[in-house]
Write the C-alpha cells for this entry.
Amino acid sequence: MGTIVVSREFKRRSGLGLILSGTWALLSGLWLTLKRMIYNLWHRKDSTTVEYPSQKVKRSSRFRGVHVLTKKADGEIRCTACMLCATACPAECIRIVASENENPDLEKSPSTYEIDSLRCVFCGFCEEACPVDAIRMTPEYETSNVSASNFIWDINFLMNRPSLKGGVTSRCPEDRPHHQRVRKGLTAELPPKN
Ligand code: SF4
Ligand code: SF4
C-alpha cells in the first residue's frame, strides 16, 4: 500500500491583513443581505417567504401530517387491531392493545391505540401497511404543545379531534375485512363476494 504525502504550507495572516480580510468578508455578507432586503421590498409578490402563521403554504396532496383513525359508517373505529401498522413502523412508536368483540361475528378492535409523535418520522409506512384504510395521514402539521404528554396521540385524538369535524369514514367496505388494499384517493376493485 503506497502512501501519498501531501504537504501544504499554511500561511497565517497577521496584523492588518487579518483585519482587512475579516472586514471585507463581513461587509460582503451585509451587502448581500441588504441587496436581498431591498429587492424583496420592491418585489413582494416574487418572494418565497410567507408570513406564517397568518399566511400558510398550500401543501401537496401527498403531504404526510398528523394521523387519523377512520370510522365505520356507524361511527365505530375501523381498525381491527391487526398490528400491521405497528409492525411496519420503523420508529416503533405505535402502541396497540387489542380487545375481542362481544359479538363473535365482528373482528376485534383496539382498546388502546397510541402514537408517540415525538418518535414518529412521518414516513407513512403505517398508512401503507393498513389493509382496511383505518389509518391515514392528513395535511395537518401544527402540533406544537407545552407538555410532553400531549405528544402521545391517543385513540380519541386520532379519531375525534375538533379539526376532523366528526371524523373520517374508511373507504374500505366493512363486509370485506382485510380483503382489499385501499389507498388514498383510489378505491381499487373489490374481489367478488363468496
Ligand atoms: S408515520 Fe412512520 S414512524 Fe410515524 S407512526 Fe407511521 S409508520 Fe410509524
Ligand atoms: S394496520 Fe390498520 S387495521 Fe391493522 S392495527 Fe393498524 S390501523 Fe388497525
Remarks:
- The domain at 67-164 is CATH 3.30.70.3270 (Alpha-Beta Plaits).
